[in-house]
Every structure is written in C-alpha cells, then in structure tokens.
Amino acid sequence: MQRTIVVALGGNAILRPSQRGTAQDQLANVRTTCESIACMVKEGYRVVITHGNGPQVGNILIQNLHSQDLVPAMPLDVCGAKSQGLIGYMIQQALHNELVKEGINTPVVTVLTQVVVDENDPAFKNPTKPIGPFYTEEEALRLAEERGETWKEDSGRGWRKVVPSPLPVEIFERDAIGVLIKEGTVVIAAGGGGIPVVRKGNALFGIEAVIDKDLASSKLAMDIKADTLLILTDVERVAINYRTPSETYLTEITVDEAKKYMDEGHFSAGSMGPKVQAAVNFAASGGTSIIASLNRSLDALKGKSGTRITL
Ligand code: ADP
Ligand code: MG
After folding, report:
1. What pLDDT does residue 259 have?
2. Residue 292 Cβ contacting ligand 1 at under 6 Å
3. Ligand 1 site, residue 294, Cβ cutoff 6 A
4. What phi and psi, each to the nearest 5 degrees, are found at residue 167?
5. Angstrom distance (rounded) from CA 16 to CA 19
6. Which of 110, 253, 263, 293 is deepest in the core (most CB within 10 A)?
C-alpha cells in the first residue's frame, strides 16, 4: 500500500528573506526543494504539496498599490488565487523536470483551492495578520477611517493593514484532490492556506482574510487520509524554552506532551504555534506529524531529523 504524505513548504522553500524576489530567485529555490520531493516520489510516496504565499501576495499588493490609476486593484482573495497560480506553476515545472531526470512519468498538477471559513469565527472581530506594504501612520489612519479597515504599527517598521485569520472549516476541493492522488498524480494545493471563502446558501464568495497554511495543510491531510504530515521550515526541530539558556530541541513527543508545551507557551503565535497546533490536530486523528528543516526533509522522513508528533 502506497503511503500518502502532505508536505507543507514554509516561506524559505520559495523565497529567502535576503532575496529580492525575482522570478529567477524563486525558481532556483523551488528547484532545490523539488529535488527532495522528487526523491519522495521515487521512494513510492503519494505526495501533496502545500505552501505559504506571504512574500508573493505582499508583492502583488505592492503592484496593486502602484498601478491602481492604470489597472483596477484586485481584492485579497483574487491576489491569493494569483499567488497559488504563480507558485503552483513554478513547482509544477520544477518538479516535472526533476522527475524526468529520474525517469519518472508522474504528472504534477496545481489545484486552485478555496477554503471555507465561518463568518462568525471570532477572528473576524479581531484581525491579527499583517499583510501588504508598510505605510506612514497618517496614511494608515486615513485608510482605516475611509475603508473601515484595521491598521497596526508593525515592530517599528511602519503601519500595515491587518486582516482576520479564521480557522479552516472545509477544504472545498478536497474530493478532487483525493481522486488525483489516488490516480498517482502529485498535487499542489491549499497554497497560502487556501483562498478564504464563505458559504451563502449553496454559493461561495471570497472574503478578506488569511488562513494559516499549516492549519489548512493539516485539515487537507486529514481529509485525504494521509499517513504523514511533513511541515518543512527553517529550523531543524521544535524547541522548548526556545532562545533561552535552557533551550531543548524535541525529537519525539506525544500529542499530550505537545499540548502541555503549548499551554506553557513555548511556541510563538505567528510562527511555531500554528505548526505545532497543525501537527497535533493531524496526529490526534492517528497520523504521524513531523516538523523539520527544509534541508533535512528526507532525513526527517527516516526519523533522523525533525520533531515527530504522534498519539
Ligand atoms: P515558515 O515560513 O516556515 O512558516 P515561520 O517563520 O512562520 O516559518 O516559523 C518558523 C520559525 O519559528 C523559526 O524560524 C523560529 O525562529 C520560530 N520559532 C518560534 N518558536 C519556536 C520554537 N519553540 N522552536 C523552534 N522554532 C521556533
Ligand atoms: Mg509561517
């Protein structure tokens, strides 16, 4: 029986903080990432790839801002769809090229993914996720007033719009993704956590929000009954007492241990927190979750790197 793995790629898989973000920069990073993913396919895994989109959506919003007198600006859901397309294209092509080198004919397909959220999610009353370019305080307060948006000062760097980060309720395209996986296709899905939509009757509508990509990946992994959720980021393992003298890296923990550490506040809200929560959600349903470094993904699958969370 072939094992199914959901590989959630962090920001550094596509763009490093020091890079400008040219197409060449991004494609070069994606190529490196795809070398490891091709090995997983070669080893017989059915693979679903999910990914973040923060820098890419940020850049699309900057393009919006500077060309709005020439071309109408697009809402955030449409920008999210654009980012799924651009990142999906790069992964599709780079992974195909790696697979061909190995003599593997597996097709690779991107599924534009909508994720249903609940309009009554408390996140809509308390927007927390900063997006897009930095503005001056004066501009930010004017836009907040004019558009009824929430703007916040972001760690001394300027003012940014903040949007709600509701929980993923339903990966709308999950059945189609499941069919593709069973047919042996590598699927790229839920990019950027998916395009947030709300349901009104039987219809779907885009909504201004950002869904956490790790939580969406965990949901998708459960929906398609994956065996493993592999969350790849820029640290080798999850730590407790992170960046303190008693910092300890974790190799294998249970769901209950992970929950205890979460309650004790070891994992930051915007970064490691949602990864551990996503890993716990998936492991609680019986799967194996691994949080590991992008550079050690194959070792992590063999238990030689990363933090493994199981029931
Ligand atoms: P990604 O783009 O992969 O989602 P994030 O920046 O959101 O990456 O999350 C990874 C970061 O989480 C690491 O670079 C690390 O600095 C930070 N982090 C916060 N708390 C911890 C912890 N307890 N153990 C390990 N890393 C942590
Ligand atoms: Mg992150």
Report:
1. 98
2. no
3. no
4. -75, 145
5. 5
6. 253
> Which parts of the chain are beta strand (E)?
4-9, 46-51, 108-110, 114-116, 129-135, 150-153, 159-163, 170-171, 186-188, 195-200, 203-206, 228-233, 239-240, 248-249, 252-254, 288-293, 307-310
| pLDDT exceeds 90 at position 181 | yes
**Minimum CA distance residue for ligand 1 atom 7:** 271
Mean of the per-residue pLDDT values of the chain: 96
Cβ(271) to ligand 1 under 6 A?
A: yes
177 and 276 together in one domain: no
| Count of domains observed in the chain | 2
For the Cβ of 258 lying below 6 angstroms from any atom of ligand 1, the answer is: no
Paired with 130 in beta bridges are 162
Active site residues: 11-12, 129, 213, 275
Residue 148: CB atoms within 10 A of its CB come to 7
CATH number at residue 305: 3.40.1160.10
Query: In this structure, is residue 241 part of a structural domain?
Result: yes
Task: For ligand 1, atom 1, name the residue with the nearest CA.
Answer: 10
C-alpha span between 35 and 17 (Å, rounded): 21
- Our mutation pick for probing the ligand 1 site, out of 56, 215, 234, 290, counting the most ligand atoms within 8 A of Cβ, is 234
For residue 231, which atom of ligand 1 is closest to its CA? 3
- Please check whether residue 255 is in contact with residue 244, taking contact to mean a CB–CB distance below 8 angstroms: no
The answer to whether 30 and 13 are in contact (CB under 8 A) is yes
What pTM does this model have? 0.97
Q: What is the rounded distance in angstroms from the CA atom of residue 152 to the CA atom of residue 142?
A: 12
Ligand nearest to the CA of 9: 1
- Tell me which residue range forms the domain holding 186: 1-115+171-192
Average pLDDT over residues 31-54: 97
Separation of CA 9 and ligand 2 centre (Å): 9
Alpha-helical runs (H) found in 102-156: 137-147
Q: Of 260, 269, 307, 268, which Cα lies nearest the Cα of 288? A: 307
Nearest Cα neighbor of 272 from 281, 262, 285, 287 is 262
